[in-house]
Design goal:
Elements lengths: L12 E13 L4 E12 L4 E8 L3 E7 L2 E2 L1 E4 L8 E11 L4 E9 L7 E4 L11 E4 L20 E10 L3 E4 L2 E7 L6 E12 L6 E4 L2 E6 L2 E5 L1 H10 L3 H12 L8 E4 L8 E2 L4 E4 L12 H8 L7 E3 L5 H20 L1 H22 L17 H4 L3 H17 L2 H15 L2 E3 L1 H11 L4 H5 L3 H5 L16 H13 L18 H12 L6 H11 L7 H13 L6 H10 L3 H12 L5 H11 L5 H10 L4
The structure holds ligand BES and zinc ion (ZN).
The site of ligand BES has 15 residues, from strand 19 and helix 3.
Length: about 600
Amino acid sequence: MADPSSFASADQFITRHINLKLCVDFDCRVIRASSSLTVRGLHDSLSQLIFDTKDLTIKKVSVNGQEAKYSLGTSHKFKGTPLEITLPFPLTRGQEIVVDISSETSPKSSALQWLKPEQTAGKIHPYLFSQCQATHCRTIIPCQDTPSVKFTYYCQISVPKELVALMSALHDGEISDPDDNSRKIYRFKQNVPIPSYLIALVVGALEGRSVGPRTTVWTEKELLEASVYEFAETEKMLKYAEDLVGPYVWERYDLLILPPSFPYGGMENPCLTFVTPTLLAGDRSLASVIAHEISHSWTGNLVTNRTWENFWLNEGHTVYLERRIDGLLHGEEFRQFKALGGWKELQNAVNTFGASNVLTNLVPNLHEVDVDEAFSSVPYEKGFALLFYLEQLLGGPAVFLGFLKNYLQVFAYKTVTTEDWKKFLYSYFKDKVEILDKVDWDGWMNTPGMPPVQPKYDMTLANACIALSKRWVEAKECDLSSFSAEDLKDISSHQRIELLTLLLLQEPLPVSHVKRMQEVYNFNEVKNSEIRFRWLRLCIRAKWEEVIPLALKMATEQGRMKFTRPLYRDLYNFDKARDEAVSTFLKNRAYMHPVTEMLVAKDLHVN
Ligand code: BES
Ligand code: ZN
């Protein structure tokens, strides 16, 4: 099966190793790269190689030291431009050659955000970070930008000497740059084969502090103390993950806490997970994102989706493992509570896309679809719901973990499709084929909307959220005095998130209700980003004008797309807020992450 999101001919040849020399130029906002790709032919008499590029300038190409002819093909609006290299000699099956490419990025590279000093916590030095998943690696270097190809890499990266560079790899020493004494070269090696989307880099005024035998927390010094506290349970989570699924093969598990414009909650870059500072709740309550990224060290980074159409294999299994770790940390009732919360998130995503939208299929067709635009909670939560349903159908958590461990063992260092997964499931449970045959596979995998069946959940922790949300939904204006701060006395922050999620699935509340909720619960003062986000949405949907500035503030002061996009969308849909939402976006767009900027522009219908 070909990758609809890539031009590279992964059926003709594969990349085995990339040796990189990068020079980061903050003045021009470009990275100059010299990339040596070791590639292996898969057929005889191959005369041309096609790589992915996007917004790259190609300066020179040679093959085994011999200069080679190349051309750039027709540009596609989101896939980029294929780089076609004519080989000076035909490649034979199994033969390996080295392709050297000199290139330069564009300042608008969609993988990179260049921050001015004012956009950092320290305000003195500039900052650069990458986000390659899903299809942005091609905007840094020419590559086979498809998860179906895995390679090792080595990188020497030159940066201003007052800054620190880190990558998704192991540190291999540093020297002062022999070509420029104002600069320093950091070296990195990644000896486990990875897909291109896991290449990552960051350059900034970073400081690190060790919080465990294999973990250093990296961030600007202003955030270091808070970060060290928030993520102190990382080693404990790593150990639980190893108890569940076996040895951690990546050696280091460092954490990088990025500036607020980082577009995701977390990104599982090998050896160095990237996370948003919106996890800094002060009480470790949002650390399940770390459990999630740790889990990707097996599901995703070892066993990798072959194409983005199979993304649920990465995320569904990762959410499943994340919740198993949650269960070990906080008990089975908590795991069940999070599982049910996931079903509500799925409901919310299906409502947003529309129940007949084919992008709500577990396995969507991504032909001519921009992966960033297709992104949603669906592969996460429909994928999780399927695995949780199968867990119950096939004999419970212990039995299902046996399957998962075996799946990881069989497919480690490889890539998988949904078909491979299903075939393996049937072979592992060969004595339960009649049960498996009763699963509505087509309903789960190839049908839009909610799944054909709902798993069962322990309701112990959810009941209080359901009861309180019901009280609010059913309350008449004259009943509002019955609410008080006491309502939340035994309601944890996780349950507050769930309460608000349930209310968001209902018709908007009357403004009188959200005003009363503010009086008694004072949610306006809450810093926890997951609570604050849902609360502000609830108020905007209730058309409470006074909350507009708070919602705009959250949408702009941080750039995690999960928060920023729905906030902007809700503001846009509120007549009293629309113009200000659009003008705020126009004023801020130059400072936004390129992908966030592109998607919010679409959401707000500006060019
Ligand atoms: N790999 C994803 C982030 C991602 C997905 C980036 C697709 C780009 C394209 C990461 O592991 C993730 O799922 N992050 C979640 C965390 C959550 C589910 C706990 C996020 O960012 O919110
Ligand atoms: Zn994930």
